Amino acid sequence: MDRFDCARQDCDVWQRRGIAVLARHSWLLLCLLALLVSACGSMDSTSQSPTTTAAPRVNGFGTAANHVHAMLALPDHTLVLATHYGLFRSIDDGKQWSGPDKTLNDMMTSSLSSSLLNRQRIYVLAEHSLSTQSGGVGLYVSSDAGVSWKMASSVTETGKMYTIAAGNRSANEVYAYVPTRGANGLLVSQDGGQHFSSPGSLPFGRILGILPLPARPGQLLVFSNDGVARSTDAGAHWTVVNSFSSSVYNMTTGGPDSTIYASGDQGIFASNDGGKSFKLVDKNVYYTGLAAVPGQPQMVYGKTGRLIYKSSDGGYSWKALPQVAGNLENLVPDPQSSTHLFLSLSYPSGVALFDQQSAAWSSLTPRP
């Protein structure tokens, strides 16, 4: 085993069992996240300066410097990939891809979300990846599953959004989190992102994500370094969920009335009462990513830096999938087949598909 393999193995152990240490020190986690985002932007803004030769494309997603920020799988065989250099789209489960999107060009895109009531409605955040870009920075919306895009609101109107989540009261509802607004940083729009307002004060100083519950209008969860809170009135009032005593950094659910899973520095939790309470189902694992499978409430995937794990019993036990080469990013179950799992890769950007029947990965990355 060479030193690079050792480093990758150490990284996997750190993310699977040691990330709790970092999560307990919220200030350190936030500082590191800020440095990571800063380094991402500064590296790419200088790597393609006018005085240097453009880097060659390594595949259909661009150069080796490109990396994935978010991925979305829709029920009509559509995949959408948000990368540091543009938005890419497939309408045949990844067999063929188009992009970068002409409206967004090679802007940095992130935080994809589709409406729970109209899957054709998609939201994405976009900002400049190069100092020479002039496109509008802010929230973009598509009403045709990503065929076309238009700007809904700019960063000058709302402040810089950290994450977005389509709401559950109407197809036009979308939530956004703007950290610079403090306790009033959770915003909601009822007109497709054109106008936002604060529904109420958050119970935590800073949140890491938003989870509107499918088919439960106005009910949502937020998770943070301080735990989890639940609202039944679209964020106007909050109740802190007392099942957690420390950080929760990922939550997922497979659909209406399905199990809600959470990963935190205490382990893996599950809720079967709409997030009112959670049960610790595995205290020995910690995953940086979780993905619940639609229509299969007991099936959930977890991700570390090097490996993907699967549980078929509600998170009580886990089995590693075959290893796939690359830097693992987003896990997205196929909404049309519970036996398929999509995975995005970074440096360079790529997409892979796992088929449970063959127990193997196949590449969906387009050639240059």
Automatic annotation (TrEMBL):
This protein's UniProt keywords: Membrane, Transmembrane, Transmembrane helix
Transmembrane feature ranges: 21-39
Keyword RNA-binding recorded: no
A single GO BP: xyloglucan metabolic process
InterPro entries xrefs: WD40/YVTN_repeat-like_dom_sf (IPR015943), Xyloglucanase_GH74 (IPR052025)
Keyword Membrane: yes
Name listed for the protein in its UniProt record: Sortilin N-terminal domain-containing protein
Species assigned in the record: Dictyobacter arantiisoli
